[in-house]
């Protein structure tokens, strides 16, 4: 009786509690959170896809994204990704515009710089463009002149008429600084015009003391006359050189890296060479005849001529080039030679000779050029030779002897091109 009553009570109690347990356990079995719905088994294809994070979007990353059905994936043929219609962006976020492009389009494109020609014109400007240039040269040159003998260091031997035996002492003009300045213009056609001025001054002096007895004064007189002697002699010489040059030229390009220029134009030159010889005291056979002897010799030439030359440039790079130049011409002008000799206050000779003459001239130069921007630095070596320019007169026989004038040395040019 008691057992049966206990079983009935347990059944009633379980019947009352089971519905409550089922209602309490239901919220813990759900999809993605709490739910008051009963547990349902769903297929993966029915799950809603999570938001897609595109390169241009700022959508928040999903911690546990659900699988995306293949039917909702964008086609590979589409260049612009799109969001499914069922997808919504969080509040405050908007999709950004996406522009298709290729990697070539993303690279910065720049216009190529023009290639600058390195064919230099005489003023250094680029071939094919007109330009104006100004330049200044520093010259280090030495004139070479004959007939600057002034004394004989030796003895008179033999019976009258005696003959001198010894060494001839002469002057030699020193190396000195000169200047050259000019302006040049080149047209686009390659024709150019150049004007420059050159100036050089130098001198020399020396004193000769006799090594054996007395020095012998040179005489251009007849050898039948007796030579004069002196205890010592000194001499000095001065040289001035002025040239005004104007040339018209044309450039040619016979081959890549080579430029050739032919030019011609008038040129004016003025050359002045003077020499003084002082000796004291003066002896003749062996009597004292004067306390001092002074001889003065001058040579002056002024003339105008036409000079033609050719110049070749070989370009070695964008900065460096080498060049060579050769030319010549003929000058016509007046030559003057003065000769005077005085013993104390007595005039022995005082002669002047004037004559119009034609003087040939040849010149050559070679060097290297460095160019950067508007500036050009040019250095080289040049030689100029004037044929039979100077004379020396024989006062007694009225005969003359001629000698050449040579100039050689280095030059350094700084040029600005605009």
UniProtKB/TrEMBL annotation:
Residues 73-90 have a biased composition (Low complexity). Residues 52-92 are annotated as: Disordered. The keyword Signal applies. It holds the Pfam family Legionella_OMP. Keywords: Signal. The keyword Signal applies. This is Outer membrane protein beta-barrel domain-containing protein. It comes from Kolteria novifilia.
């Amino acid at each position: 009786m008691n057992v049966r009553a206990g079983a009935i009570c347990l059944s009633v109690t379980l019947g009352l509690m089971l519905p409550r347990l089922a209602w309490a356990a239901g919220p813990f079995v759900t999809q993605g959170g709490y739910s008051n719905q009963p547990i349902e088994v769903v297929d993966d294809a029915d799950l809603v896809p999570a938001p897609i994070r595109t390169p241009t979007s700022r959508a928040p990353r999903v911690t546990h994204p659900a699988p995306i059905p293949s039917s909702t994936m964008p086609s590979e043929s589409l260049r612009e990704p799109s969001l499914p219609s069922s997808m919504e962006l969080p509040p405050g976020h908007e999709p950004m515009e996406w522009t298709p492009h290729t990697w070539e389009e993303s690279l910065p494109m720049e216009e190529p710089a023009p290639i600058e020609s390195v064919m230099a014109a005489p003023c250094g400007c680029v071939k094919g463009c007109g330009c104006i240039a100004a330049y200044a040269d520093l010259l280090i040159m030495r004139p070479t002149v004959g007939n600057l003998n002034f004394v004989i260091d030796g003895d008179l031997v033999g019976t009258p008429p005696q003959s001198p035996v010894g060494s001839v002492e002469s002057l030699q003009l020193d190396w000195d600084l000169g200047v050259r300045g000019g302006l040049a213009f080149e047209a686009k056609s390659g024709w150019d015009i150049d004007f420059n001025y050159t100036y050089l001054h130098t001198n020399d002096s020396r004193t000769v003391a006799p090594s054996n007895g007395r020095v012998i004064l040179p005489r251009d007189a007849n050898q039948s006359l007796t030579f004069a002697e002196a205890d010592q002699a000194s001499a000095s010489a001065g040289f001035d050189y002025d040239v005004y040059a104007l040339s018209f030229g044309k450039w040619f390009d016979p081959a890549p890296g080579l430029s050739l220029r032919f030019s011609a134009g008038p040129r004016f030159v003025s050359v002045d060479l003077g020499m003084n010889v002082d000796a004291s005291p003066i002896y003749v056979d062996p009597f004292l005849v004067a306390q001092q002897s002074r001889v003065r010799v001058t040579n002056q030439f002024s003339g105008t001529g036409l000079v033609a030359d050719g110049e070749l440039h070989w370009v070695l790079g964008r900065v460096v080039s080498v060049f060579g130049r050769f030319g010549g011409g003929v000058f016509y002008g007046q030559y003057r030679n003065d000769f005077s000799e005085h013993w104390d206050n007595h005039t022995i000779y005082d002669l002047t000779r004037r004559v119009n003459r034609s003087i040939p001239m040849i010149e050559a130069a070679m060097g290297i050029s460095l160019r950067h921007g508007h500036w050009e630095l040019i250095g080289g070596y040049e030689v100029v030779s004037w044929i039979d320019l100077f004379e020396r007169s024989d006062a007694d026989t009225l005969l003359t002897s001629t000698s050449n004038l040579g100039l050689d040395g280095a030059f350094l040019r700084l040029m600005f091109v605009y």
